[in-house]
Design a protein that fits this description.
It comes from Paraglaciecola hydrolytica. This is MSHA biogenesis protein MshK. Residues 1-21 form the signal peptide. The protein has a domain at 43-96: SH3 type barrels (Roll). The protein contains two helices and seven strands; from the N terminus they run H-H-E-E-E-E-E-E-E. It has helices at 2-19, 34-40, and strands spanning 46-52, 55-60, 63-66, 70-71, 74-79, 83-88, 91-96. Strand 5 (74-79) and strand 6 (83-88) form a beta hairpin. The termini are far apart. The relative contact order is 0.10.
Length: 110
């Protein structure tokens, strides 16, 4: 029985070692860390805002951020029901949830 415990312990301790040094097999061959900085230069896009009690979260470029967190070179100053205020190298920036891009259902007269 102790043999199995040692074997299990050995397997658990060696698992993290086998992961080190592995690369993502789906990563493009010409991938460099500079590609990340190119993504940071892209325009910020607000896709959702979640306000539950005292917790406010904004989905910016597909990632969740709260007030005070950093989004690339910007800092999330405030999150309200329909907009997010950011502060960064280019000053204050406001992101709106829909940018007046609301689709309407013509059949129902909305």
């Amino acid at each position: 029985m102790t043999y199995y415990r040692y074997l299990l312990l050995l397997l658990l301790l060696s698992a993290p070692l086998s992961v080190q040094g592995k690369t993502d097999p789906t990563r493009p061959q010409n991938y460099t860390k500079n590609m990340l900085s190119e993504e940071q230069n892209n325009e910020l896009s607000l896709s959702a805002i979640f306000v539950t009690g005292n917790t406010k979260q904004a989905i910016i470029n597909g990632l969740s951020y709260g007030e005070g967190q950093s989004v690339y070179a910007y800092k999330v100053v405030s999150i309200s029901a329909n907009k997010v205020e950011l502060s960064g190298p280019q000053g204050k920036q406001l992101l709106f949830i829909n940018n007046n891009n609301v689709k309407k259902d013509a059949k129902n007269g909305f």
